[in-house]
């Protein structure tokens, strides 16, 4: 018979994965993991036929309830709301498969956020976590046929927001290096050329730090915003460093100002140009990411934006 400790070890990542995609918040997902296993532990192990199904049920229902509360808070959120960034893994483990770009990118999570909590739960359980409609019906307390119709509708909404024509991983590394080089090089035309003409720059400060209160549209406007920030850091003598990192399954970097983590930035590519930029500066949303950095080795390296850009570009070719 499985012990509680064994069940926890086998399923905690799955519970976190469900909760994180439902809420777009790693800190809230951690709370749901704790609450889910507390509720699960109240049930005698011998009475549980399928621990994973029961855990998914508790986590999903809790996340649906919290999603409804989160909507009310976001109505008063200052500026664009972005999901809480997480560092993601790259490997062949079945759960790591859920942590790759198509399942956890900022664009994907934002697309999910436009669904109702119920629609989001059904879509995730079916298309991401591979539950059958009978299981999903039991979890969300709807009929299997109703869940099928909900998912068909949700698929259309999510597909509309999917990135098209993404470059290869190797090409993405080159483009990211060129992007950093252009940001540090002071050549506006070079940076504009790397941005899609319909580029969008999202900046989430949460009202706690400076950030654009509205998305910035267009290559020129986005480039000018980046250059404006760089110029301000230079004038103020701020020491700026960046770390390459895989954030939410996408290429990006962590920006440090005077040694402190300030921004998690990810880029979404379309063809050979940057289509969307997601910049999270809200300190509360960087807490989980900081804990990840301190608890496990991360495959990234520091680059001084002002001195070592050429070396960076060379390393990524």
Structure described in brief:
Helix content is 53%, strand content 16%. The chain is an alpha+beta fold. A 7-stranded mixed beta sheet has the order 2-1-6-5-4-3-7.
Q: Overview of this structure, please?
A:
- This protein is α+β, with helices and mostly antiparallel strands and 317 residues long.
- The chain has 13 helices and 7 strands.
- The protein has helices at 4-23, 26-41, 51-74, 101-104, 106-113, 117-128, 133-140, 144-160, 169-185, 188-194, 219-236, 287-295, 309-315, and strands at 195-204, 216-217, 240-247, 250-257, 260-270, 273-280, 302-304.
- A 7-stranded mixed sheet has the order 2-1-6-5-4-3-7.
- Helix 1 runs antiparallel to helix 2 (26-41).
- The longest helix is centred in the N-terminal third of the chain and has 24 residues, at 51-74.
- The termini are far apart.
- The model is unreliable at 298-317 (pLDDT under 50).
Strands side by side in the biggest sheet: 2-1-6-5-4-3-7
- Would you list the SSEs in sequence order as H and E? HHHHHHHHHHEEHEEEEHEH
Mean pLDDT: 86
Look at the helices and sheets and give the structural class.
alpha+beta
> How does the major sheet shape up?
7 strands, mixed
Percent of residues in beta strands: 15-25%
Q: What overall geometry do the principal axes of the alpha carbons give?
A: elongated
Extended strand count: 7
